[in-house]
């Protein structure tokens, strides 16, 4: 176990790194020359990380070392006799084609046609060469690649190009020098047959940059959208943060074989193809926005991550939370801000809240880990972003910019900590932000309790806020967190009231932020002329669960009138959740009536944005609803949610739904503008609702939509309606889709995923059938995600079978997968999170399977850590 409190500065640093690669598919050789610097204050022997390396030769200061002068064991190379300024030279042999873990140097695609690439974050560099593989060792890199010209026409590494040429025997070479010292996790190389899309770019500070996106020949035409997104990201970072790109060339490469979304290697970003390639025939609107977001995210890392990096991996959120926040702000500017907020908060609730409530819970800055790859989590990323958002809110737009300028200026070229971040933001604004540090150190989602009291005689409104730390035992001892609550007060007619807090006015504003920094506090608003309805936590101003005793008609009022698009949606979500609980408990439901009535009137309102309306018409998902249960029965939750939607559909009426569908379907287009995207989104939602009232009619419409769809968004929506509804047309549609997209891995992934999300008992058999499909393989992470990931994560009613067959399937696949790719296995295994809260039969079935898995010998550290935590908590 690695602990934050054990951090020590490195005893040895590396000033310069020279790497010479001799590349081949089966075997690659690498000569490394490291110029070492010793910390005079420490006297530890030279120890370098290295995993599974075949050491061919080693010399120190030009002298070959005898076997007695070094020891390589337990993934550490210890070398005697090094001193400050020594040069260590090693040669190793690597086996890229045999590397199925996709960490270090590996082959993407086939031996004949594929290409070589690397993935180093977090600790992949030690699979390439011996090195102090930790982010606080920053070095200057010179990288030379040599390879057969015919097999590897393109040779890329991070940094600026520094020469290239021919060698004997049909070979060639290329050299790259990176002027910016960097940690080893940002090293990258790519070699093979790739096509390029190029664009010239001039930064705001006048640097001419060549933007080059590389992909295999069949994919290069699908890189135009990413190129546009890259250019938008670069401009935006110049304007919003004053950050310019800092090399002469910026490479981006797409691969189908990648463990996560993408990687910000300095000057050579590498992307999972699904986060980069886009064209209307194979990419949905949601995926287009995702491509834009990931391109931006990786680009923004050039400053928040690369120029300023992390001292150690406990600080991971320093770069990830901050970069997610920067991406979210960018996407909000490029698209609709309220829709982006709804999307991000939905993700937080679907992925992070359950993580934070179960055995895998950890603080945004974890205190310990066994395998760091297990900590690239929704907590570190998404909750981390929410923490930055609170800080940005506390400082205001100008103050945050001032603080960020200070942060970049003071930490440029450094490996920093979260304290450094808070200090820079605070000092630039003359404020102390250290109270926010507590957010980084504790796991769990805090509860915010709100209660309002109106005094009609005194015209005062007292808002009592209280916070409760999550997690019961010992949690009481935790100090209160600063919780910013953005709020407004509405009249019963839906108008906003001017705010006067304790006599002081908030200017002319009718929205303000109060910060609850104690366990409980009353906020007294004066001159409140009528009993108000509070709109609290607007824009989701803090990552908490709000508990407020709203009456259904108050939520309906906010749903109808709140001008904060997020809170309007949120009011609808709260109302729907109440309705769900009433249905579950067999109680009469004012909430259900209020929810349906409010939505029916919005449905007829022509001024509301189609995309927002689509979101308003969607109740909380099954995973979110499960968070409200003490004994989870996923199939019952699915049924209740269906019933809830059916009631809504009935209230809207089949005729109105059909008419709306027809009106929306009259615009067939593949245009990506907001209005066209919004129409497609609403059209899908309307069709889904109609399917709950008129199965056959909706299936006919879906079949026609599938046939005539001009692009993937409409096609996939129709296919999903057919498959989920068990429509007779589904099997033909699946065959057609399959034939049409046969050569397109990303489209095929969606074909698998749609079927893996078939609700209820039949899903498992379908998944087992699909596992036998020629196109299925455990070796490709995207394919694994699309079938097994979609099943265990996005299909609770299918996965959580009462007979435990879903759990057994997952456990069996985890064992096979772990032997190939531990990172992907560990991520899939997190689907067992929350098993303790299942109802008793499922819980017992899950326990049996997990206990057995935990006892399995030879599990990777990745998988063992996840299974161990899930079991022992
Ligand atoms: N830094 C990358 C990104 O967020 C993700 C790298 C994930 N690495 C890993 N081993 N899980 O952009
Ligand atoms: Zn990132």
From TrEMBL:
- What EC number(s) has UniProt assigned to this enzyme? 3.4.11.2
Q: List GO BP terms, alphabetically.
A: proteolysis
Ranges where the Peptidase M1 membrane alanine aminopeptidase domain occurs: 225-434
Please give the SUPFAM superfamilies that the UniProt record associates with this protein.
Answer: Leukotriene A4 hydrolase N-terminal domain, Metalloproteases ('zincins'), catalytic domain
Reaction it catalyzes: Release of an N-terminal amino acid, Xaa-|-Yaa- from a peptide, amide or arylamide. Xaa is preferably Ala, but may be most amino acids including Pro (slow action). When a terminal hydrophobic residue is followed by a prolyl residue, the two may be released as an intact Xaa-Pro dipeptide
The protein's GO terms of the molecular function aspect are: alanyl aminopeptidase activity; metallopeptidase activity; zinc ion binding
Q: Which residues form the Peptidase M1 alanyl aminopeptidase Ig-like fold domain?
A: 444-548
Q: Where is the Aminopeptidase N-like N-terminal domain?
A: 99-186
A Pfam match is Peptidase_M1
What is the name of this protein? Answer: Aminopeptidase N
- The protein's organism comes out as Rhodanobacter spathiphylli B39
Please name the gene that encodes this protein: pepN
């Amino acid at each position: 176990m690695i602990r934050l409190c054990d951090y020590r500065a490195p005893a040895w640093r590396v000033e310069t790194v020279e790497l010479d690669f001799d590349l081949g598919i089966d075997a690659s050789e690498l000569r490394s020359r490291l110029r070492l610097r010793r910390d005079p204050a420490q006297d530890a022997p030279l120890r370098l990380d290295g995993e599974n390396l075949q050491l061919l030769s080693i010399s120190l200061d030009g002298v070959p070392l005898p076997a007695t002068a070094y020891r390589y064991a337990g993934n550490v190379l210890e070398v005697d006799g090094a001193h400050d300024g020594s040069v260590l030279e090693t040669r190793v042999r690597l086996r890229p084609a045999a590397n199925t873990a996709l960490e270090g140097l590996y082959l993407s695609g086939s031996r004949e046609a594929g290409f070589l690439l690397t993935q180093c974050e977090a600790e992949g560099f030690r699979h390439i060469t011996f090195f102090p593989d930790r982010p606080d060792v920053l070095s200057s890199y010179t990288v030379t690649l040599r390879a057969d010209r015919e097999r590897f026409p393109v040779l890329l590494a991070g940094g600026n190009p520094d020469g290239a040429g021919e060698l004997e025997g049909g070979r060639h070479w290329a050299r790259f020098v990176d002027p910016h010292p960097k940690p080893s996790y940002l090293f990258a190389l790519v070699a093979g047959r790739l096509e390029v899309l190029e664009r010239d770019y001039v930064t705001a500070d006048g640097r001419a940059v060549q933007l080059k996106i590389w992909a295999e020949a069949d994919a290069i035409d699908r890189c135009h959208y990413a190129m546009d997104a890259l250019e938008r990201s670069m401009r935006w970072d110049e304007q919003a943060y004053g950050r310019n790109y800092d090399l002469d060339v910026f490479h981006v490469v797409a691969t189908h074989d990648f463990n996560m979304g993408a990687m910000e290697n300095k000057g050579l970003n590498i992307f999972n193809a699904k986060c980069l390639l886009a064209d209307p025939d194979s990419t949905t609107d949601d995926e287009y926005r995702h491509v834009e977001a990931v391109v931006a995210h990786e680009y923004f890392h050039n400053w928040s991550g690369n120029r300023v990096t992390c001292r150690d991996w406990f600080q991971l959120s320093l770069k990830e939370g901050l970069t997610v926040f920067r991406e979210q702000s960018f996407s909000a500017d490029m698209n609709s801000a309220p829709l982006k907020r709804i999307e991000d908060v939905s993700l937080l609730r679907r992925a992070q809240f359950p993580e934070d409530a179960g055995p895998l819970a950890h603080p945004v800055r974890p205190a310990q880990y066994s395998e760091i790859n297990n900590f690239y989590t929704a907590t570190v990323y998404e909750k981390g972003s929410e923490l930055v958002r609170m800080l940005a809110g506390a400082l205001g737009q100008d103050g945050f910019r001032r603080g960020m300028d200070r942060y970049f200026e003071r930490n440029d070229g450094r490996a920093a900590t979260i304290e450094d971040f808070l200090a820079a933001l605070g000092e630039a604004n003359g404020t102390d932000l250290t109270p926010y540090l507590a957010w980084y150190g504790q796991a769990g989602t805090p509860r915010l309790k709100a209660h309002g009291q109106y005094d009609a005689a005194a015209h005062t409104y007292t808002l009592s806020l209280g916070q409760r730390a999550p997690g019961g035992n010992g949690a009481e001892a935790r100090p209160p967190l600063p919780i910013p609550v953005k709020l407004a007060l509405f009249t019963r007619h839906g108008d906003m009231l001017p705010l006067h807090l304790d006599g002081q006015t908030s200017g002319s504003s009718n929205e303000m932020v109060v910060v609850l920094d104690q366990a409980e506090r009353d906020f007294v608003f004066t001159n409140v002329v009528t009993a108000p309805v509070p709109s609290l936590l607007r824009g989701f101003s803090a990552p908490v669960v709000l508990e407020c005793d709203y009456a259904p008609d108050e939520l309906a009022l906010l749903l109808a009138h709140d001008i904060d698009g997020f809170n309007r949606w949120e009011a609808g979500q709260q109302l729907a959740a109440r309705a769900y609980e009433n249905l579950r408990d067999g109680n009469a439901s004012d909430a259900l009536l209020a929810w349906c009535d409010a939505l029916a009137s919005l449905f007829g309102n022509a001024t509301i944005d189609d995309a927002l309306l689509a979101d308003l018409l969607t109740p909380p998902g099954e995973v979110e609803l499960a968070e409200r249960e003490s004994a989870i029965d996923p199939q019952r939750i699915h049924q209740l949610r269906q019933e809830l939607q059916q009631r809504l559909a009935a209230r809207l009426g089949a005729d109105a739904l059909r008419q709306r569908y027809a009106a929306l379907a009259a615009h067939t287009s593949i245009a990506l503008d907001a209005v066209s995207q919004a129409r497609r989104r609403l059209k899908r939602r309307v069709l889904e609702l109609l399917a709950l009232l008129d199965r056959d009619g909706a299936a006919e419409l879906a079949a026609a939509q599938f046939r005539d769809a001009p692009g993937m968004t409409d096609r996939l929506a129709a296919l999903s309606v057919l498959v989920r509804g068990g429509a007779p047309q589904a099997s033909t549609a699946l065959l057609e889709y399959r034939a049409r997209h046969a050569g397109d891995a990303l489209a095929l992934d969606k074909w698998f995923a749609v079927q893996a999300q078939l609700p209820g008992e039949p899903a498992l058999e379908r998944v087992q059938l699909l596992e036998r499909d020629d196109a299925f393989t455990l070796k490709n992470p995207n394919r694994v995600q699309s079938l097994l990931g979609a099943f265990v994560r996005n299909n609770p009613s299918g996965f959580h079978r009462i007979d435990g067959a879903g759990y057994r399937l997952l456990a069996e696949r985890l064992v096979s997968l772990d032997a190939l790719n531990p990172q992907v296995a560990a991520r899939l295994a997190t689907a067992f999170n929350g098993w303790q809260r299942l109802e008793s039969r499922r819980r017992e079935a899950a326990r049996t399977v997990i206990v057995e898995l935990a006892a399995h010998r030879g599990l990777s550290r990745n998988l063992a850590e996840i299974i161990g935590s899930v079991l022992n908590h």
